[in-house]
Design a protein that fits this description.
Elements: H1 6-14, H2 20-38, E1 41-44, H3 46-61, E2 72-76, H4 103-110, E3 114-119, H5 153-160, E4 166-171, H6 177-182, E5 186-189, E6 209-214, H7 217-227, E7 257-261, H8 271-286, E8 290-294, H9 302-317, H10 336-347, H11 350-363, H12 368-389, E9 395-399, H13 415-419, H14 426-431, E10 435-443, E11 446-454, H15 459-472
Parallel strand pairs: 2-3, 2-4, 7-8, 7-9
Antiparallel strand pairs: 1-3, 4-6, 5-6, 5-10, 9-11, 10-11
Helix pairs in contact: 2-3, 7-15, 9-11, 9-12
The structure holds asparagine (ASN).
Residues 125-128, 151, 171-175, 310, 422 line the site of asparagine.
EC number: 6.3.5.7
Pfam families: Amidase
Subunit structure: Heterotrimer of A, B and C subunits.
Length: 483
Amino acid sequence: MHQLTLAGIARALAGKQFSAEELTRDLLARIARLDPQLNSFITVTEAAAIEQAQAADARRAAGENGALLGAPIGHKDLFCTRGVLTSCASKILHNFKAPYDATVVEKLAAAGAVSLGKLNMDEFAMGSANESSHYGAVHNPWDPSRVPGGSSGGSAAAVAARLLPAATGTDTGGSIRQPAALTNLTGIKPTYGRVSRWGMIAYASSLDQAGPLARSAEDCALLLQAMAGFDAKDSTSVDVPVDDYLATLDQPLAGLRIGLPKEYFGNGLDARIGEKVLAVVEELKKLGATLKDISLPNLQHAIPAYYVIAPAEASSNLSRFDGVRFGYRCESPVNLEDLYKRSRGEGFGAEVKRRIMVGTYALSAGYYDAYYIKAQQIRRLIKNDFVAAFEQVDVILGPTTPNLAWKLGEKNADPVSAYLEDIYTITANLAGIPGLSMPAGFVDGLPVGVQLLGNYFQESRLLNVAHQYQQVTGWHQQAPAGF
Ligand SMILES: NC(=O)C[C@H](N)C(=O)O
């Protein structure tokens, strides 16, 4: 059962091959047996999952047959879940049980999905390796001595290890696509505003966006269909009708115009990854796509701009964690200032503190114009690069990451070396466009991801291209040994 995709599970449940409860119990047993090697879960909600599965079975027996009815999933631990620990993988929220459900959680529950628990992540989603979690690092099932990527590393490891068919993640600078690439999954970051951020603990509000990680493009389409849509509770949610993502999966690719940005194949890219990416291009050509060389000239400025804007927003968002109303509070504070200082000093980890300091500095009087305003101007140039590119092509294709999954601990002494891993993913967040990563093969037994970028609200196009590719290739079906 654990090898089935969401689409396969939907067929099996409809055909009464097993019940949602049997499936849930099977996966819970797998989690108990295998997750100690991976550390992908922060909380397993066993009893609630069995109840939800029984409710799904009852709805099915009453004649309902939604695609996600009884489908097991997990949520990244920054989606608020009512009555369940929502820690953001931080000590400062180690005792926070959310009083309400995030819109994404609510929507998936309404569709009948069964949540098996909350997944590990980088603390406050700050990281690309899932090593900054208060609950410990996550291991990559393809090689447990390596990182699974981040910040949705728990979601990626759990789905890759077949503990779950799919999970939610969030992507501020690559946090869905990069872990998907490093664990052989498909993951999509939708257009900014496509999925509600209500109830998602904020990191950088102008960049954060939720999306699915799964083992196929079809499964991403199934989940995104349930997650997307306007939400009056999120002021940045966009009131644009949601496409039927499943209806367009089978569209032929004849005439598809693919842009290859020369900057994505330059210095810093592991040449072996470059070769795999070009092999994907060859395959898409056979399916009728045409190629065009393009340029995204401001790529080189993306990392400095992102690492000003994201920390600036984080420094503001994280000011709410003060030890007063919820979360961690230091022992015996002597006065209010002591309470703030020690609760925050003891509650936040090193990477979070680094970003709060960088962000506070960038926003401070005298530096604001030099850093923050400058970064916003670069952001506009990056957006303009994409607008110009999408006048010539339908999708942009390149590597998701410059390197393969690295060894745990390898980049800890040098945070900038980890920031550089985001080079190909963060531009989509700065511009607000959708991006998808899908499996493109293996180098030394480690997965390689290829990234597709689309114009605003073109999620269906990205899912269509990935699905067509997955009809003629088998990379996405490979499972890590032992799982
Ligand atoms: N949250 C993300 O999208 C990950 C990115 N590497 C960051 O640390 O900001």
